[in-house]
């Protein structure tokens, strides 16, 4: 059980980078806006840096959201289920998510390897390497896949409540 709690805590810790990326993105955009408005000198590569930080924000935050059940959920129908059916519904949902996200992670990883080998860069006034963004995207999806697998195995063995006992509850249920 400690392995599953460790996995969830690791996902939450990596997800914290998402918040840092948000702050960094605000600083980059603010600096760019002030430079444009008052000095007629925009921040070079502001758009490229902001896109990279957005990728960090979104893809590194997904596993942490999964670990804390912070994803938006509409539970109108599942709230009507008995505990046994809720358990089965969770197992089926996590299984489907594992297969779908796992396939996307696998394809994203293959694409990241290819982009890295090619040294993929953007075209513009200042060339910007894109391959690190592809690696971050693939890493985030792989971590999400591992977190879903951890949730699936942990839920199958102990049930959701006991598995999440070591983490804060940020559930977004309606």
Automatic annotation (TrEMBL):
* Transmembrane residue ranges: 12-31, 37-60, 91-113, 135-158
- Please list the residue ranges annotated as the Tripartite ATP-independent periplasmic transporters DctQ component domain: 25-154
Q: How does it sit in the membrane?
A: Multi-pass membrane protein
Which InterPro entries does this entry report, sorted A to Z? DctQ (IPR055348), TRAP_DctQ (IPR007387)
Instruction: Give compartment(s).
Output: Cell inner membrane
UniProt KW keywords: Cell inner membrane, Cell membrane, Membrane, Transmembrane, Transmembrane helix, Transport
Query: Source organism's superkingdom?
Result: Bacteria
Family (UniProt): Belongs to the TRAP transporter small permease family.
Its job: Part of the tripartite ATP-independent periplasmic (TRAP) transport system.
Please give the subunit comment from the record: The complex comprises the extracytoplasmic solute receptor protein and the two transmembrane proteins.
The protein's name is TRAP transporter small permease protein
Q: What is the lineage of its organism?
A: Bacteria, Pseudomonadati, Pseudomonadota, Alphaproteobacteria, Rhodobacterales
